[in-house]
């Protein structure tokens, strides 16, 4: 149905695509795999008409096409869910879903019809609770993802392109997404699916195309029975073990490292209530729970970025709930939504990395830019940010590399407590193992880490202790080694405490 | 269908080529690209001047008068650049300048001599800017509205204080006037002050944490907040800085006109904002340069000069300026598009 041949796309200084072939058949789920920066997002932006290829051809149903803009692609029947959410925060859910093809007559928007149609799509997506009239800016990242999916579905598309749609979704939502994908493919719609989670590819994918450094290294692999080792070595060119770093040799119960954080009776109405726990120096504490269970909100409240009642004690001192003060006292938060909450897209990687510790680079307000650069370069290397040029504007990095820049910000300066919200969102398999090692290493150096992740194996593999959250309350707290994925899933879904 | 696992074996440069140098400064490539167009525009205007009025245009005295004209608004433009990069807008600059000039030239102030008069102007400017900043940062007023209110109120206060009369600088305080009459190397002192303010502004924006934070606060306030920057305090300081620039500008206009008056600086806000926009600073914040703004201002000043030299109608001059703003913004948008991902 869609055949792309020899696609080349050049950006200033980077050849993002260097001869990519792809063919997608009607009714299949075609997965694109590749490391961060391999060119997956660029490729789908070429399909979606956002970028024009420098070379190569695109055929759709046997006809040469050359979408010169997103509108052209939409007319051809391509709908795209971008990796970086592209919603207008100030508009309502309905307005976002139908942006560009509003229900209107003679230029007057017919609100009622729009809201009705929006409700239908949202229901189909299994989210009747999202009100069509809500302003999108007020929604959680996961709900925003649903809205962008609804937008893609509202187009009657014949080809739906999804760039890491599951990155912002929790377990049950992914199941929902897959149900919809199956529904679509059974009607002959083709889906191009990008994800760094191999188990998803196994579950939903039909065939796989692997990209590496802007080229196709394999096309049409069967998604279900190509061995993982083969896929990973195609992607990375080496053998990567998907492993978690070993926990420090410590007797169960842990050496009572000094308490870095103590939270008592923390409550934020509507998000979570009466949450108490502690994080010790050198310890990684994981928060597991569904989207909406209050995970991210707890991090924000501890950080002082969300109004809450209750006590937050950092290194024995009760803190006033202000971000500025908390950062000065040694907290750092890598937030969930990198684009909206963390990055200055127009600024360089360096400026983004040093933003959280500017005073450390300045004397009387005067910036030491040489040192700033050197530190950024060191971190870019440590986290394998590619391309390794810290002067590049962050927006020209691939999604996974942007994520690494967000983390890098808090590796600077002397931190006592790091709050990591989905730290590996969009990071590829190989780099993930490295990030885990970096996080463990931080803990070994005496930093307390509070980790939120939608991926239960990640929480279990990385954390020492796990808090399980459900509907805003902690329902279980225990050693990560005594839990398994199944048990945790059971708790977060059904609330059955072990 | 091709062999499923056959890797493409063409040789060629790897996907990740050598990154192009982006220039040392984080905004290097932007400033360079944006400034080229401005420099070309200035060159064109100079050519027009040379062709239409060769005798009058290319004289030192004309050059000096262009610079003196630019100096007052120029100082204001520096402050406005900070505010706009920081994601705000300051409509009250002209009014603040008028108020500062009136306050500094009242009979009571004049008794204390020229130094106190200058300090008074600067303090009044900074203080008024601070009020703007407090209203916007802590009172959560929209900048447009808060500074619009200030525009009206400050001018009203200036009229009240001066009783709508133009206040002359007394002969014993002529030291202030000497800023425009004393020349070093043929150039009046006030042009040096202008240059100094530009240089300090550039350093503040590009070499200090304050500048870096200004970009952060304007570019993504939420990210700035979560990175531990006190966004409100910074916003407040930006307006105070703008007020400070207005205070300095008040001293310059007092020097040039030998008066303080509630009518000084009428519509300066428009010229300053227009210069900033032409200079490539985004009205949405997070992006922009001081040099761009100053070049933008020079374009405006050159146009005024050319129209005066050629004895043309001031209405036509306004029309020309309006066209320039539109053209500049259109060009900018094309630039942005090319860079967008
Ligand atoms: N607008 C741009 N300007 C310059 N370079 C760009 C631009 N967009 C992408 N690139 C570069 O192109 C390469 C491919 O990026 P792309 O976003 O396609 O990667 P990806 O495979 O989607 O990675 P990820 O898994 O991290 O999302 C990267 O090296 C990136 O830095
Ligand atoms: Mg991507």
Question: In whole angstroms, how far apart are the ends of chain B?
Answer: 33 Å
Care to count the β-strands of chain A?
A: 24
Trace the largest sheet of chain B across and list its strands: 1-4
Mean pLDDT of chain A: 87
Number of helices of chain B: 15
The amount of helix of chain B comes to: over 70%
**Number of domains as seen in the coordinates of chain B:** 1
Provide a brief overview of the structure:
The complex is a heterodimer of chains A (about 500) and B (about 350). Helix content of chain A is about 35%, strand content about 25%. By secondary structure, chain A is α/β, with parallel strands linked by helices.
What does this structure look like?
Chain B: InterPro entries: ABC_transp_permease (IPR001851). Chain B: It is found in: Cell membrane. Chain B: Keywords: Cell membrane, Membrane, Transmembrane, Transmembrane helix. Chain B: It is a multi-pass membrane protein. Chain B: It comes from Nonomuraea harbinensis. Chain A: InterPro entries: AAA+_ATPase, ABC_carbohydrate_import_ATPase, ABC_transporter-like_ATP-bd, ABC_transporter-like_CS. The complex is a heterodimer of chains A (498) and B (341). Chain A is an alpha/beta fold. Chain A folds into two domains: 235 residues, P-loop containing nucleotide triphosphate hydrolases (Rossmann fold), CATH 3.40.50; 236 residues, P-loop containing nucleotide triphosphate hydrolases (Rossmann fold), CATH 3.40.50.300. Helix content of chain A is 33%, strand content 26%. Chain A has 17 helices and 24 strands. In chain A, the strands form six sheets. Chain A has a six-stranded mixed beta sheet with strand order 6-9-10-3-11-12, sandwiched between helices. Chain A has a six-stranded mixed beta sheet with strand order 18-21-22-15-23-24, sandwiched between helices. The longest helix of chain A has 16 residues. The radius of gyration of chain A is 23 Å and the shape is globular. The termini of chain A are far apart. The model of chain A has no long low-confidence stretch (mean pLDDT 87). Chain B is mostly helical and 341 residues long. Chain B has one domain: ABC transporter involved in vitamin B12 uptake, BtuC, CATH 1.10.3470. Chain B has 15 helices and four strands. Chain B has a two-stranded antiparallel ribbon. Chain B is globular. The two termini of chain B are 33 Å apart. Chains A and B meet through strand 2, strand 12, helix 10, helix 11 and strand 20 of A and helix 10 and helix 11 of B. The structure holds adenosine-5'-triphosphate (ATP) and magnesium ion. The site of adenosine-5'-triphosphate (ATP) has 21 residues of chain A, from strand 2, helix 1 and helix 14.
């Amino acid at each position: 149905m869609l055949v792309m041949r020899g696609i080349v796309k050049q950006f200033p200084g980077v050849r993002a695509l260097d001869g990519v072939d792809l063919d997608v058949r009607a009714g299949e789920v075609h997965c694109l795999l590749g490391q961060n920066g391999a060119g997956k997002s660029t490729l789908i932006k070429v399909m979606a008409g956002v970028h024009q290829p420098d070379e190569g051809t695109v055929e759709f149903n046997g006809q040469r096409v050359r979408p010169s803009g997103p509108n052209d692609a939409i007319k051809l029947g391509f709908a795209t869910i971008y990796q970086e959410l592209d919603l207008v925060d100030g508009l309502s859910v309905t307005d976002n879903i139908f942006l560009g093809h509003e229900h209107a007559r003679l230029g007057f928007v017919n609100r009622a019809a729009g809201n009705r149609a929006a409700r239908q799509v949202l229901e189909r997506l299994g989210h009747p609770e999202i009100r069509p009239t809500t302003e999108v800016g007020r929604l959680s990242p996961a709900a925003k993802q649903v809205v962008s999916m609804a937008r893609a579905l509202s187009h009657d598309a014949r080809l739906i392109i999804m760039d890491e749609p599951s990155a912002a979704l929790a377990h049950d939502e992914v199941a929902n997404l897959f149900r919809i994908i199956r529904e679509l493919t059974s009607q002959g719609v083709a889906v191009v699916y990008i994800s760094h989670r191999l188990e998803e590819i196994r579950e939903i994918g039909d065939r796989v195309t692997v990209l590496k450094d802007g080229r196709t290294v394999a096309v049409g692999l069967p998604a279900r029975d190509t061995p993982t080792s083969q896929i990973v070595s195609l992607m990375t060119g080496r053998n990567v073990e998907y492993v978690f770093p070993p926990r420090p040799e410590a007797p169960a119960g842990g050496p009572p490292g000094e308490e870095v954080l103590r939270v008592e009776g923390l409550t934020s109405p509507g998000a979570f209530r009466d949450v108490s726990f502690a994080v010790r120096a050198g310890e990684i504490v994981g928060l597991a729970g569904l989207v909406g269970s209050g995970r991210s909100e707890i991090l924000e409240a501890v950080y002082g970025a969300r109004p809450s009642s209750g006590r937050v004690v950092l290194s024995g001192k009760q803190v006033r709930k202000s971000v500025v003060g908390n950062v000065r006292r040694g907290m750092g938060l890598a937030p969930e939504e990198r684009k909206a909450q963390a990055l200055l897209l127009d600024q360089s990687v360096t400026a983004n990395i040093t933003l959280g510790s500017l005073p450390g680079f300045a004397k009387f307000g005067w910036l030491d830019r040489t040192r700033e650069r050197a530190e950024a370069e060191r971190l870019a290397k440590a986290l394998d940010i590619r391309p390794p040029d810290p002067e590049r504007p962050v927006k020209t990095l691939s999604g996974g590399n942007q994520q690494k820049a967000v983390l890098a910000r808090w590796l600077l300066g002397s931190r006592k407590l790091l709050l990591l919200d989905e730290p590996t969102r969009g990071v590829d398999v190989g780099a993930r193992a490295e990030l885990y090692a970096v996080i463990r290493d931080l803990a070994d150096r005496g930093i307390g880490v509070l980790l939120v992740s939608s991926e239960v194996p990640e929480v279990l593999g990385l954390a020492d202790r796990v808090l399980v959250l459900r509907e805003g309350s902690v329902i279980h707290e225990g050693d990560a080694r005594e839990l398994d994925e199944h048990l945790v899933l059971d708790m977060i879904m059904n609330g059955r405490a072990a | 269908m091709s062999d499923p696992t056959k890797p493409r074996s063409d040789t060629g440069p790897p996907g990740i080529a050598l990154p192009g140098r982006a220039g040392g400064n984080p905004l290097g490539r932007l400033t360079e690209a944006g400034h080229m167009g401005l420099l070309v525009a200035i060159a064109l205007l100079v050519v027009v001047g040379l062709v239409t009025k060769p005798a009058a245009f290319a004289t030192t005295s004309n050059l000096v008068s262009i610079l003196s004209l630019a100096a007052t608004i120029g100082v204001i433009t520096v402050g406005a650049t900070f505010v706009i990069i920081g994601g705000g807008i300051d409509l009250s600059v002209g009014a603040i300048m008028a108020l500062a000039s009136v306050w500094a030239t009242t009979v009571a102030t004049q008794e204390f001599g020229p130094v106190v008069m200058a300090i008074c102007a600067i303090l009044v400017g900074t203080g008024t800017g601070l009020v703007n900043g407090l209203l916007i940062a802590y009172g959560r007023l929209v900048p447009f509205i808060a500074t619009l209110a200030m525009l009206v109120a400050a001018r009203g206060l200036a009229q009240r204080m001066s009783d709508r009369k133009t206040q002359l600088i007394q002969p014993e305080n002529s030291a202030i006037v000497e800023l425009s009459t004393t020349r070093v190397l043929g150039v009046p002192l006030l042009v040096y002050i202008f240059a100094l303010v530009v240089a300090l502004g550039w350093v503040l924006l590009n070499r200090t944490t304050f500048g870096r934070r200004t970009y952060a606060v304007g570019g993504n306030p939420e990210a700035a907040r979560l990175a531990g920057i006190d966004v409100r305090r910074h916003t407040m300081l930006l307006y105070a800085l703008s007020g400070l620039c207005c205070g300095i500008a008040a001293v310059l206009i007092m020097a040039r006109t030998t008066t303080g008056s509630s009518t000084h600086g009428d519509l300066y806000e428009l010229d300053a904002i227009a210069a900033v926009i032409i200079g490539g600073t985004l009205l949405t914040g997070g992006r922009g340069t001081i040099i761009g703004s100053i070049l933008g201002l020079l374009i405006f000043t050159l146009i005024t000069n050319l129209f005066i030299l050629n004895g043309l109608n001031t209405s036509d001059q306004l029309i020309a300026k309006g066209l320039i703003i539109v053209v500049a913004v259109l060009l900018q948008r094309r630039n942005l598009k090319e860079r967008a991902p």
